[in-house]
Structures are given as C-alpha cells and as structure tokens.
Specification:
The complex is a heterodimer.
Chain A (H helix, E strand, L loop, with lengths): L2 H27 L15 H7 L2 H34 L6 H13 L2 H18 L8 H26 L2 H9 L4 H30 L2 H6 L7 H10 L4 H29 L4
Helix pairs in contact in A: 1-11, 2-11, 3-6, 3-8, 3-10, 4-6, 6-8, 7-8, 8-11
Chain B lengths: L6 H8 L11 E10 L2 E11 L4 E5 L6 H9 L6 E6 L2 E2 L10 E4 L11 H11 L4 H14 L15 H13 L5 E5 L7 H18 L2 E6 L2 H7 L2 E6 L2 E6 L1 H6 L4 H6 L4 E11 L2 E6 L3 E5 L10 E6 L5 E3 L8 E12 L3 E8 L4 E7 L13 E6 L4 E4 L2
Helix pairs in contact in B: 3-4, 3-5, 4-5
Classes of the chains: A mainly alpha, B alpha+beta.
Chain lengths: 267, 381
C-alpha cells in the first residue's frame, strides 16, 4: 500500500519543519563554545551566566508581572463579553460588539501598538493619565488583545453549555447574578483557566506592542532579548529562549488539557 | 365527606373538571406565543385543577414545550394571561414562581453532588444548611437514592439521574410541578416502571403535575386528563378514555392509538341508528350523532381492536365487509391483521390472543370483518 510509507513520512517531515529550529536552539543552549554555530561540547555555563545577568532577570520579572496582570484582567473582561454575546439574545449593537471583540485577533500588531501609543500620548496630554509610559500602559495594551482570545474561548464553551442548567437554577429560586456565580462560572471554569494561561503566554511573548507602549525602565524580556540579539547572537540568549520555550509549552499543554476536559461532557 | 352523596357528587370530587362550579388551580387564558413570524402557541385556553396529573400531548414542534416554558416563566407570552392559584404570573420571574420544573435533559449541576443538587433550591429559599440537607435526604429517600447522595451526576445511570432531577424539582414542595418529557431518555422497560413510580409520588405528595410528552402510551398511563396539541393549538382535552373512545377529530383519532379512517356522507338517521355511506366499506351503521345534516361529508373511525374477523359472514352483524388477509403479525398478547378490502384499501384489525386458537386465521384467507354500530365513531373534522 502506498499509504503505508507516505503517511509516516509526511508526519515526520511536518514535525521536522515545525520543530527542527526549536530543537536546534535548545541543543545549542547547552553548547560550550562561545560561537553559536559551532558545537564545542556539552555545558550549562550559559544558563549560569543567564542567572547572573541582572538585566535579564529584571526584565523577566517585569514580563511576569505584566503577563499576570494582563491575563487576569483580560479573563474578567473576556468572560463578561462572552457571556453578554451568548446569553443576552439580540440587542442593539450586538453585531458591532461581536466584531469588536474579535478585531484585535486579526489586527496587525504594529497597528494595534501604534494606535495604543497615540491613545496613551493624547490621554496623557488631556487627562494627565497614564503619566508617562511603562508597566501600566503595557498591561492595558496586552489586556486589549488578550481579552479577545479569552472571549473567543469562553464564548465557545458557553455556547456548548446546556442552557437548561442555568434555567434550572433560576427555577429553583436563584436570581440571575447568583446563577452566574453558582452555576455558569463553575461549569466554564476549566475553559477560563485555559483562557487565562493562553493570555499569560501571549503577553509573555509579545514584543511589538510592548515596544510601542513601553517607556524607560519597563523593558520586557522579549524587548531585552531583541536588543541583545541585534548586537550579535550570544549563547546565553539561547539558554533564555530554551527556558521560555519550556514555560510556554507547559502553559499551553495545561491549557489544552483543561479545555479538552471541560469540553468532554460527563455523559 | 357526606356518605349519602350521590355517585355524581363523588365523581365531581375526584374529577373536578366535571364540576362546572369548581375553581381551576391554573388558568391559561388565550395564551399566544410568537417567535418572529412563527406562532408556536396559538390562542390556547386551558383550566387545570388542583391535584391533577395533566398531560400535554403532541408531536414535536406542536408548542407543548413552549407552553410549559411559559408556565415556568422562561418564555414571555406574546398575548394572554397565566393564572396560578388566582395570581397573575405576567411579571413574576422564574425564581419567584410557585412552580418547579423537571427538564428533559435533567439539567443536573455537574459540579455538585446529588445531595447538593437537591438541597440547592432549599438553600436559595433561605433554609439553613442543616435543614436543607435533612430535607434533601428525605426527598432522596422518597426516590430511593439515599445511598448515592455523595455521588456526582456523571457517576449515575440514566434512571438514577432522572430520579435526582425529580427529587430536586419536588424538594421545595412546589404548588405545580412541570415535567418536560420526564421519561423520554429512559429505555422502554425502565420507562414503564417509572411511570407508576411517578404516579405514586404524585399521589403521595398531592402536587399538581403538568407533563409534556410526545408518547401517547405515557400520556394514557399517567394522565388524569390529556390535552392533545397540534400546530400550537389544543385540539381536544379530556380523560384518557374520552380521548381514545371519543376523539373529536381525525387528528386525535389518528394520533392516539391506531385507527381505520374512511370518508363518507351522512345518510338516513333513525332514533337509534344512522347510516354513513362510504365508498370503501359501503353503508355503515353507526350510533346516531346529533347535529349532522344529510349528505354532509364525515369520516368514520374504527379502532382495530373493535373489529372481529371470521371465515363465515356473521348472521347478526350490523356491519360486515369481506376481504382477504394480506398480513398477520403475531405479537404475543395479540395478533395484528391487515385485511385487503374489495377496493384495494387496507383495514387494520387486532385480535387479542385470549385462548390458543388451534386453527387461527392466516395469510391469504378470505374473511369477513365485522363491527358493531358502537365501534364506529363519526367525525366531522
């Protein structure tokens, strides 16, 4: 059978195409040599060097703070948007909200970043807030596009959920707000956790938008890495990249597992 | 109760719908529900009395579930009024209504144990945790599930889930319990057992039940009265026996059980007999029915079990038609026959197998199908 060898070959080629760069990066992060492209034996010296680099550690801490805050706010906003879109039937401006909720997903990052920068500058001139750019502005910027991702995930889960669960709770004497917290939220919770994790990794990864809306003293990890690489690729960046890959992979895996578990109906 | 009361008075006591002076518990007045340009429920009026087990029966899309959801408060009527115990329900949200509902999907909260599911309604009522759990325990005992109180819904079988849903809907002692296809998801055997279980619980608690079902057997078994629905309207309301024996239309006759329907014209009428001239059966002798004019188009409806089969023409039969047995299906307690009449039409006949017939009527035999005037129901619509 022709299919006997074709399918495995296609799979192997596909995986090589997708993951060969990542694997080579991880391998070279354990390279003894200072030259990035020449193998000089196994070593963890670049990891040690990395953990002694105050600039990188500081940027990592800023990135984590931003990602945590942005993911949390985005989860709240995204969930509310999804709830309104799936449960309130048709209302004035529903179509507009549907479009707007998902627009940041398709908007080029450069445009999102530039428009947010212009907004922040003019807000500072007219309202006096936010004063200068830094942590706050990056958090706001990341929240906007993360909320869109959370909204999409929460929407699909809410559509999937048996609405008679909520009706049953109403029927048993719970008001609408009570129903949301007693029934809706626990049922969609796994999807929200996975949405949060996704938002967290997206925020951690972002370079373009952060570069636009960042200010002095608020360089995120991707910004620091990018500026280092521009001066020539140094092996400690490989080590850093390997660690980031590990964190992001773990988060995405957990998110995926949670999402799958919440989609599986207990029937 | 007055021991010397006439039998009629007793009947009115247990069958309040027969008493014109009885106060209905639920009044549905000219209820209409439109979704955009589709009318789901069309000007329905219905009185239901305290302690009844009322079945709304109809095919899918006939509006029975929409009517139930309007009683529960999940849908707002486009027009009309719903009264429960004399109180207008128009502005009462579902969480404030004296009703509870058992959902077709059961809608058990997946993240709560059986006990917590049942206690949920009591806690929302402001009962203490201890009292709520004690009452939930009692309710679970009534549905024989006390040993499974700590399980999660997904660890239960379909039948057990159904009973949890019932316990949860009953625990607040609603004045009115609404059940949407309560037995629809159970297999046949379990369904039959559960039907009687449902009646037992309803009689124990004395709650008024309104059951929505598409299953006519279920409706016949459960109901004190049945409301047959079609295309958003109530076609006929009556006790199961009335609905079966005295259907008011071809739709009801055909929907409940199986029936032979033939078109004809009203013929001569005598005080104790009238004739319907049909093309297929020839002249049919029926009980006189007032209000028919001669020559009017009517339909005769004859239940298959009311027709006798014999090899010889019965001498004294009021109605007898010849035919040939086309098909026989032996179904244990009875046999179904399809008899081809002279014009080619089929007549459905069922015979109960009370005795073991040594020489049963079989395929391709010429037979006579006979029925009494009382077996013929004359329908005008």
């Amino acid at each position: 059978m022709a299919r006997g060898w074709f399918l495995p070959l296609a799979v192997v080629l596909g995986f090589v195409f997708l993951y060969a760069p990542i694997v080579s990066l991880v391998v070279f992060s354990f390279n003894e040599s200072r030259l990035v492209t020449v193998w000089g034996g196994f070593s963890t010296r670049w990891y040690v060097a990395l953990f002694n680099d105050r600039q990188i550690l500081g940027a990592a801490w800023i990135s984590l703070k931003i990602a945590f805050a942005a993911a949390t706010i985005a989860t709240v906003i995204g969930t509310l948007a999804a709830f309104v879109l799936t449960r309130f039937g048709s209302f004035r401006g529903r179509l507009l909200l549907t479009g707007m909720a998902t627009a940041p997903l398709v908007m080029p990052e450069v445009i999102t970043g530039l428009s947010l920068l212009l907004l922040f500058v003019s807000m500072e001139l007219t309202l006096g807030w936010p004063a200068g750019r830094g942590l706050t502005t990056i958090i706001i910027a990341h929240t906007t596009f993360c909320a869109a991702f959370v909204a999409v995930i929460a929407q699909s889960r809410l559509r999937d959920m048996d609405e008679s669960l909520e009706e049953a709770a109403r029927d048993l004497g719970a008001g609408p707000v009570r129903v949301f917290f007693d029934i809706t939220l626990p049922v969609i919770a796994p999807a929200l956790v996975s949405g949060w994790l996704l938002a967290f990794t997206l925020s951690l990864d972002d370079l373009v938008i952060a570069s636009f809306v960042s200010g002095p003293g608020a360089s995120t990890l991707p910004m620091v890495v990018f500026s280092k690489v521009r001066l020539g690729v140094s092996p400690d960046v490989n080590a850093l990249a390997a660690i980031i890959i590990a964190i992001v992979t773990t988060a995405v895996l957990i998110a995926g597992l949670l999402l799958r578990r919440s989609m599986r109906r207990p029937q | 109760m007055n021991r010397t009361a006439a039998p009629d008075a007793i009947a009115a006591d247990t069958k309040p719908w027969r008493d014109p002076g009885a106060e209905p518990f639920i009044g549905i007045r000219n209820i209409t529900k439109r979704f955009d340009d589709f009318t789901a429920v069309d000007d329905v009026s219905l009185d239901i009395y305290r302690g009844e087990l009322f079945c709304l029966l109809g095919g899918s899309g006939c509006g029975k579930s929409t009517l139930l959801r309007m009683l529960a408060g999940f849908e707002t009527p486009s027009a009309g009024q719903i009264l429960i115990d004399g109180q207008d329900m128009a502005r009462v949200p579902p969480d404030r209504r004296p009703t509870n509902m058992m959902f077709q999907s059961y809608a058990l909260f997946p993240h709560m144990s059986v006990e917590k599911n049942v206690a949920y309604g009591l806690l929302r009522e402001g009962k203490s945790r201890a009292e709520a759990h004690a009452r939930a325990g009692e309710m679970l005992k009534l549905v024989k599930l006390e040993s499974l109180a700590r399980r999660k819904p997904h660890q239960l079988s379909g039948g057990q889930r159904q009973r949890v849903a019932l316990a949860r809907a009953l625990v607040k002692q609603p004045k009115l319990l609404l059940l949407d296809e309560p037995l629809g998801a159970l297999d046949k055997k379990l369904r039959e057992e559960t039907q009687f279980e449902l009646i037992r619980i309803q009689e124990t608690l004395g709650v008024t039940f309104i059951v929505v079902t598409h299953d006519q057997d279920e409706a016949m078994t459960l109901a004190t009265r049945i409301g047959v629905m079609n295309e958003g309207a109530i076609v006929q309301v009556g006790e199961p026996r009335e609905i079966y024996e005295e259907p008011n239309s071809r739709f009801v006759a055909d929907f409940i059980g199986s029936v032979n329907l033939f078109e004809g014209r009203a013929g001569m009428a005598a005080p104790d007999m009238m004739r319907i001239d049909t093309e297929v059966l020839g002249p049919v002798n029926a009980r006189p029915r007032p209000g028919l004019t001669q020559g009017q188009t009517v339909w005769v409806a004859i239940r298959p079990e009311r027709i006798g089969l014999s090899r010889e023409k019965p001498a004294d039969a009021a109605n007898a038609v010849p035919g040939v047995v086309e098909e026989v299906a032996y179904r244990g307690h009875m046999s179904s026959y399809r008899v081809r009449l002279a014009g080619g039409q089929m007549l459905r006949v069922t015979q109960s197998n009370l005795t073991r017939d040594v020489d049963p009527i079989s395929w391709d035999e010429p037979v006579w199908a006979s029925f009494t005037p009382a077996a013929v129901r004359v329908l005008t619509e």
